[in-house]
Amino acid sequence: ARLVETGGGLVQPGGSLRLSCTGSGSRAIGWFRQAPGKEREAVACINSSDRTSYYADSEMGRFAISRDNARNTVDLQINPVTPEDTAVYYCAARSYLCSGTWSAYTSRGQGTRVTVSS
Question: Residue 1 has what pLDDT?
Fold first, then answer.
């Protein structure tokens, strides 16, 4: 199924943000981001069945990933946001288990832009 990210926009530093990925199905879903002038990086992932979640070391404590299979969505919460979170955020899907590698995912969304600024 096609993946669609929503929830991006302008948010003030110190605020919170919830991004949603619709179309997740029963697949592992990874969230990635690409900041201006930087390479795409993995930030969080959740397995399809046991719901084990993984986070980039630098984001532990601020990011939370969750899934609602009944709504066919996987959410990524960021709290508090900082200007360094400014990026285009993408979700991607693959069978069963998470991967930190973008190319390991077989379906990818178009991204949602997040700008953190006062």
Answer: 73
Residue of 75 and 51 predicted with greater confidence = 75
Q: Alpha-carbon distance 74 to 20, whole Å?
A: 6
Residue 33 clears pLDDT 80, i.e. is over it: yes
**Cα 92 from chain centroid?**
8
Element (H, E) at 83: none
Specify whether the CB–CB gap between 69 and 49 falls below 8 A. no
**Cα-flanking dihedrals φ and ψ of residue 100, to 5°?**
-90, 5
Residue type, 101: T
One-letter amino acid for residue 99 of the chain: S
Q: Phi/psi at 57 (nearest 5 deg)?
A: -55, -40
**Buried-exposed string 29-49: b where 16+ CB fall within 10 A, e elsewhere:** bbbbbeeeeeeeebbbbbbbe
- What pLDDT score does 87 carry? 98
pLDDT for position 96:
83
> 85: phi > 0 → left, psi -120 to 50 → alpha, else beta; which?
alpha
